[in-house]
Amino acid sequence: MSKVALNRAMPIFRQRKRRKINLPLCECFFAHLRQSFSSHSSSDAEDYRDSDAHTPQSDNYNDARNGFTSDEEEEDDIPLARGIFEGGSEMGSYKQGDATYHILIERLVSSGQFSAMKKVLNRMRKEGRVLQEKLFISIIKSYGNAHMPNEALSFFYEILEKYDCKPSVRSFNSVLNVLVQERLFNEALQFYSDKKAAGIRPNVLTFNILCKALCQCNRVDGAYQLFQEMPTWHCDPDVFTYTTLINGFCKLNRIEEAMSLLDEMQADGCFPNTVTFNAMIHGLCKRGDMIRALKLMDNMLLKGCTPNEVTYNSLIDGFCKQGKLKKASKVLHQMMEKKCIPNTITYSTLINGLCKLGKLDDAAKILSGMLERGCRPNVFTYSTLMSGLCKVGKVQEAIKLWDEMKNSNCETNAFVYSALIDGLCKGGDINRAKELLWEMSEKGFIPNVVTYSSLIDGLCKASNVHDATVVWNEMLDKGHVPNAFSYSILIHGLCEDGNIEEATKIWKNMMDSGCNPDVVTYSALINGLCKAGRMDEAVTLLDEMLCKGCQPDVVTYNTLIDGFCKQNNIYRAMDLVDEMLHLGCDPSFRTCDILMSGLRQCGKIDNAGDFFEELVFRLAKKGRIHGASTVLEALLKKGFVPDIYTWTITVKGLCNLRKVYRAIDDCCTKVYG
User: Among candidates 437, 435, 493, which has minimal Cα distance to 464?
Assistant: First the structure.
């Protein structure tokens, strides 16, 4: 402890190196310092550990404002030797030893010893020493670093009321910044509203702090209102003010307002910087307006702003999301021509875009090129490619990439584990998937509903419904709430296993939990009921589905039509075809196959041609040419020859449709090049 005390004392003597040192006085100082620190440093540390820094902060703004207490009763015996300050002549209003006090306070607050700091301040006040505002600002910032916003707020009011030093806007902004950093946005606004009572005149930094805070919590209109208030305080917005608001508008997809503000900014003589343009370009790319984004980058260059990796990454991401990989690659080449080095985000964005289009080989080449250029992939890079490989069944390649990722000491995450477990389950390697789930839990990554659902789905497809039910119960025991997809998987598995009663029980649990079934869930249970021959219950469930606004799809209708055909109730099956046409659901090849089999089973195959030709006519008349062509193609595959009218109406519709598509393609070519 004596070494610490000596180290703290050294700056005092460095500041006085030009003076003649009083050696007896120094010996007295060091002796007292050793004694004082040995008795006080441990207690001050305990005071800090027991302080409010480690207890929940009060949410009451007035409590913080009025909560400071007088330190008159505190012991003013601080770890300083009185002798070192005695005998020095006064130099104006500044007394010998003030700098030492300031240094000591800064050391105390930087180490979190706020109780000791208060004692030093009290002693300085009693001795009539100079208390400068920069010292108070340092203390406020230290309270912020210690995550003690209420103490920082209380101390601000103590500055005037207790230490007789009128705080300026600098102190005010320091407290404001502490409150915002702790995300106490309402308290920050309340503090700002008290500026008149505190005698503070806000400056541009005050408004910038508040605008940033409001934009962070998506209260952009409030930030814009503050922006409009600035002229009344004779404050001119700077580039940071405009950039914050533009970014806030773009995050909420209010692009036109952001563009208007950018124009206003330049009209007022405030020139946007690279960050401003990047915020606007990112907003346009996020919206998919790539033409304006590219034009804005051209404007950026004309204004003398150099695009950086953030600019190019936004454009590459925008093109990748639209599936325009050639455009994205063009931007990448332009980026490298401008000597702007692509980073991990650049490569990861391209890999993600390629994976979404199924171009996994190209994605793997990008990863190899990335490594060759010395750019280290992150967990997102690896997980994107592994997920893409798993989706197309290339699980072994994904596992190989997984091993490569672990060997490169790249930290993994729950998403990677979930993607691999899903891929292994789809590939039928259930045992390896179980091992990964166990490893995931062992490494502290909590499996989520998606992870469990993947394993349950794999077990059901492997006809191991019993183990799937065990995993389901484990998921519930660990507090995970199943979603509609999870319920659909288990209900479908139970129905396929013939356990319709258990499936119905799970369905009831789903309804009781408040989880709304989707079309997949309804279709799964309808399929189970149809297989069990319980057609009345299946139709009742279809009616319930329609009443709740859930639109049946072609799979739902195919299941019901197949159920009625197997019961030789072909007329009820045809009624369902009429219903699906009325609801805008076109038949598929599977629908046609089911109806053909049903008609043959009932001995009415001779009427099949007439029935399907009428179906083609009805679809074509309603302009549903794809549906009409699907039925016509099914007819041809089954050996039926449509009449000339059926051919004419279908071919005419397809020709008209192709003209429309060709016009759209021509338009896109002219616009995008």
Answer: 493
- Per-residue HEC secondary structure of 314-336 comes to HHHHHHHHCCCHHHHHHHHHHHH
Please give the Cα distance from 631 to 634 (Å, whole number).
5
Tokens of 221: 């209109």
In the chain, helix, strand, coil percent, each to 5?
75, 0, 25
**429, 455 in Cβ contact below 8 A?**
no
Closest CA to 112 of 65, 144, 137: 144
Residue in this structure with the two tokens 């500026």, named with its chain if needed: 195
Q: Where are the beta strands (DSSP E) in 141-235?
A: none
The DSSP code for 478 is T
Position 161 pLDDT exceeds 80: no
Give SS3 for 516. coil
Where in the chain are the domains? Answer: 1-194, 579-673
Residue 310 exposure: Cα atoms within 13 Å on the Cβ side? 12
**Mean pLDDT rounded to a whole number for the chain:** 80
Residue 131 pLDDT: 76
Structure confidence by residue, pLDDT tens digits, 236-289: 999 999 999 999 999 999 999 999 999 999 998 999 999 999 999 999 999 999
Instruction: Identify the CA nearest to 42 among candidates 3, 79, 82, 80.
Output: 79
Q: What is the 3-state secondary structure (H, E, C) of 543-605?
A: HHHHHCCCCCCHHHHHHHHHHHHHCCCHHHHHHHHHHHHHCCCCCCHHHHHHHHHHHHHCCCH
What's the CA gap between 310 and 317, in Å, rounded? Answer: 10
Separation CA 609–CA 69 (nearest Å): 94
Q: Find the range with the poorest average confidence among 118-122, 230-234, 256-260.
A: 118-122
Buried b (16+ CB within 10 A) or exposed e, 512-534: eeebebebbbbbbbbbbbbbbeb
Task: For residues 550 and 202, give the distance between their C-alpha atoms in angstroms, rounded to a whole number.
Answer: 55
Residue 508 burial (C-beta neighbours within 10 Å; 0-12, 13-18, 19+)? exposed
Helix (H, G, I), strand (E, B) or coil at 483: coil
Q: List residues bridging with 91 in a β-sheet.
A: 94
User: Would you call 91 helix, strand, or coil by DSSP?
Assistant: strand
Percent of the chain at pLDDT exceeding 70: 80
| Contacts with 370 (C-beta within 8 Å, 6 or more apart), sequence order | 344, 347, 377, 381
Average pLDDT (447-457) is 90
The span from the CA of 254 to the CA of 568, in Å, is: 58
pLDDT in the model for residue 620: 79
CA distances from 288 to 121, 247, 314, 664 (A): 58, 16, 11, 18
Which position has the token pair 């009011």?
A: 157
Element (H, E) at 85: none
Single-letter amino acid code for the residue at 657: L
Q: How remote is the C-alpha of 522 from its chain's centroid?
A: 32
Q: How many angstroms separate the CA atoms of 565 and 343, rounded?
A: 60
Task: Report the candidate in 524, 615, 529 with the shortest Cα–Cα distance to residue 564.
Answer: 529
Q: Among 6-10, 206-210, 357-361, where is mean pLDDT lowest?
A: 6-10
In which residue are the tokens 């030789």 written? 568
| Distance between CA atoms of residues 369 and 329, nearest Å | 14
